[in-house]
Amino acid sequence: MSETIVSPFHPGEQKIQHRLGVRDKMERFGQQVIRDYMPDQHREFYAQLPFVFVAHADQHGWPWASILFNQPGFIDSPDNKHIHINTIPVPGDPLINSLKLGNRLGILGIELETRRRNRLSGHISNVSENSIELCINQAFGNCPQYIQTRELHSIDPMSMPPKIAEKLTLLDQQAIDLISNSDTFFVASYVATGSNKPSEGADVSHRGGKPGFIRIDDTQTLTIPDYLGNFHFNTLGNFLENPKAGLLFIDFNRGHLLTMTGTVEILWDSPDIEFFSGAERLWTFRIDHAHWLKNVLPLRWKLQQYSPNTLLTGNWIEAGAAKKAVTLRNTWQPYQVTKIVRESSLIKSFYLNPPLDQKPHFQPGQFLTLKIKINGKEQIRTYTVSSAPGDSYFRISVKHEHAKSNTPGVFSSYLHQHISVGDNINVKAPTGAFTYDATSQRPSVLISAGIGITPMIAMARHALQEAVRTRTIQPLTLICSARNSDQRAFFSELNEIANNSAGQIRIVWALSQPEPHLKMGVDYHHNGRICKQLLQSVIQTDAYDVYLCGPNDFMQSQYNSLRELGCSNTHIFAEAFGPATLIRDEDTTVKTLPIAEEAIITFVESHLEQAWSKNDGNLLEFAEAHGLHPEYGCRSGQCGACKIKLLSGKVVYQQEISTALDKDEVLLCSAVPAAYTVNKTNNTIARLEIQL
Q1: pTM
Q2: CB-hemisphere CA count at 13 Å for 50?
Q3: How many CB atoms lie within 10 A of CB 478?
């Protein structure tokens, strides 16, 4: 008869793993790494610590988080199933009353200097006046995500002010100040059904984030983001079974402890999640009762640096700014130029800061719309954001354009020659449908020429940042084309991204006219333009997502080659420059109605009514021909700058557009009147009313 395998996870943990699609994976993983004993390296680790965190539940079932400390060596393990903790809780700590035989404790050993941590749970097998013995139920390691590096030092306990213990049922101002500025706290949770399974009992976990990552809703309620973790869901799983928690905040500078217990609720679908960088979900904590334990720790910690994972998350001020930016996404806002960097002989990068009360969030590959008055006339252009969503800045990288007549591009020339650090530029928040999906399970290839590299550098930066945050990345290859090294942008930056990706991001440079001193295989990888043979050496199956950006002839050529190599049309994504669009071998343009032969168009705000016919072009051209000056940018259906309200009537688009529209919105640059029947008895000439 085969032995029944007991899951290392209790039902609450399993339910969340099921919900998020990782149940089977975590069961296999958990059977390997969650043990009923301590590995030797864990025993050695605990033995060197000067403090550990402890979770327990009091006699009324309220969870608490505590800290125990002493000289290193105060923890020892006579064997891999038992651990001795030779110290006592600080005066006023509820843990004092829970040190009874059979009670379950959760232990978190954490070394803030090295960001190393391990956890265990067990039950009290012996207790004396000055020590606790635990029998191990479960032991496992934890990754260092969101742990800030801190330097520890001790002070003479005799030099400390008298200890003070205060009871609270509401947060006082000192507690509010501590929580508001915290980048670290510890959370205890507890499950006990009476089954005595190893997966049940108490657990204590670390939580970290930027200062301000805990929202204080009132003097009883906190809202806290939950970031991507190890998928064990020990804490949230416990919450699901027993919606109570204990929180412990440490005043690292003064040795105070704020410990509280209360009720929790998991917020799976809060609209605030969208605006909080890094948040997978939220949970709230409502205080029931708490204790201030002041001047009780003879330990002090000095912040050294934030975790790389922490830096990719947000705080509630930033979340509020992002939410406000959404309400103003179609409004011109003054962005300040904070830095200008020359990337090549043709390209400059402009670093931009939005207004302080806004933090537009965006997808890699999207663009900003800029408006500048040049020679007395307002000009509008769109430029791809070349920074990533996780960066602390906006960056656009602009090529100094020259027409065939050698007349400099009006807008790019103005940026290159007249814009300085400190200047303000009117900008609309990022938009656009050419975006990179870092969660795709397929490897990706990014193919660019010239200034088409701008969305690709944003996508590559984002892929690396997400790899740090999620600890996973699909292979990514960038194939970048330029004339020579003088005109090539982001060479060092892309190399740094590749070097930091553990081999998962690869850069292939194609130079059509490389300088003689450059070394093949080091400074570039292909002599000539990107060709079908080069693509074939990289794309060997049809299992890739492919992104294209560059001049239209380049785009069309690469698209045709990709199709010949067997790449699926639905997995080729393209961003073209100017009014030209990619011609696909499958028509993806949707036309629900035929184009009208004639129409009456009313521009309501301008009090103008005119007859339109097919030869009059799109609505933007028609408006301009009649003396109106609507805003526009790309004139190709990509930027959304000419989006406007359609009050009545119907339109059809002459080309595929990438801008998202509401039902009552229209893109002037791409729309023409549609033929439709006004009533059942009369095919009256089509009519449009536009809010312009």
Answers
A1: 0.78
A2: 13
A3: 26
